[in-house]
Design a protein that fits this description.
Blueprint lengths: L3 H22 L18 E5 L4 H9 L10 E7 L3 H17 L12 E7 L12 H17 L6 E3 L6 E3 L13 E4 L3 H15 L10 E5 L10 H8 L5 E4 L2 H6 L3 E2 L6
Parallel strand pairs: 1-2, 1-6, 2-3, 6-7, 7-8, 8-9
Antiparallel strand pairs: 4-5
Length: about 260
């Protein structure tokens, strides 16, 4: 008896199962509300920083961040972007000052780390080599998303900014609870990596890595290329836009200007 029909049936089953799993993972096709979290429960926020104006907008968005809720902040910057790394340090220093009383005692214990990944595409980089650099960036995203983080602090000699050592001893945080991004192409790869990890149904990914993409304030009539890709593929839980006109023209959620 020919085995071809059985092989074709097996292929069909695999393809259908893959398609259904993909629909389950993609937020646009399976919208769910986050589970309530007890106040004070360790929560990891992952912030994807672009460069220049994107970074400035991001920290404007985070100016009212509550460290009681997001007890650990992870910042991702692209290689060579010292501006974004230094802004993250400045933001955390200011945040720590707010958490101290008049005697200088730290009221709310919280931590943060800054990680550097390869750029998805450099300025003026030929399109021919972009897939290679994007793949390197994607692999680095897999590593960072699942790396356990402890409270042990250190100084990075290569990047000259505070970071956390990633170790397997007594991990306090694993996969991010929330990922927020606002523009750079790297954000698409970070979000894609999070979806692939959830697609694989790896242990610890359930209910993790919800995503919010905030379109730049400068985008008035159309989404950025990153925004268009994320919306077209249904990759984010919430797409926020800062102009009502843009919400009418694109698939975005308008809740007012977020940048101050």
């Amino acid at each position: 008896m020919s085995t071809i029909p059985y092989m074709l049936a097996a292929v069909v089953v695999v393809l259908v199962s893959t398609f259904l799993r993909l629909l389950y993972v993609l937020p646009a096709f399976n919208p769910t509300r986050p589970s309530p979290r007890p106040r004070g429960r360790p929560t990891r926020l992952l912030v994807v920083l672009g460069s220049g104006g994107h970074t400035s907008e991001m920290f404007s968005l985070l100016h009212d961040l509550d460290p009681n809720v997001y007890t650990h902040r992870s910042y991702i910057v692209s290689s060579g972007d010292n501006f974004s790394a230094s802004k993250a340090v400045e933001f955390e220093i200011a945040l720590e000052a707010k958490r101290r009383d008049k005697q200088g005692t730290l009221l709310v214990p919280s931590t943060y780390d800054i990680s550097v990944i390869p750029r998805a595409r450099k300025i003026h980089q030929p399109l021919l080599t972009t897939p290679v650099s994007s793949l390197r960036c994607l692999i680095a995203c897999f590593t960072l998303l699942g790396a356990p983080i402890t409270r042990q602090s250190s100084w990075s000699d290569t990047n000259q900014h505070p970071t956390k050592r990633l170790t397997m001893e007594n991990p306090r945080y694993t996969y991010p609870d929330l990922i927020i991004a606002n523009g750079p192409a790297t954000a698409v790869l970070v979000i894609a990596a999070s979806l692939l990890l959830r697609f694989g149904n790896l242990r610890g990914t359930e209910g993790k890595m919800r995503t919010i993409y905030v379109e730049s304030w400068a985008r008035v009539n159309s989404l950025s290329l990153s925004g268009k890709v994320l919306v077209a593929c249904g990759m984010v839980n919430r797409m926020l836009v800062q102009w009502e006109n843009l919400a009418r023209n694109a698939q975005g959620e308008f809740i007012g200007a977020l940048v101050q």
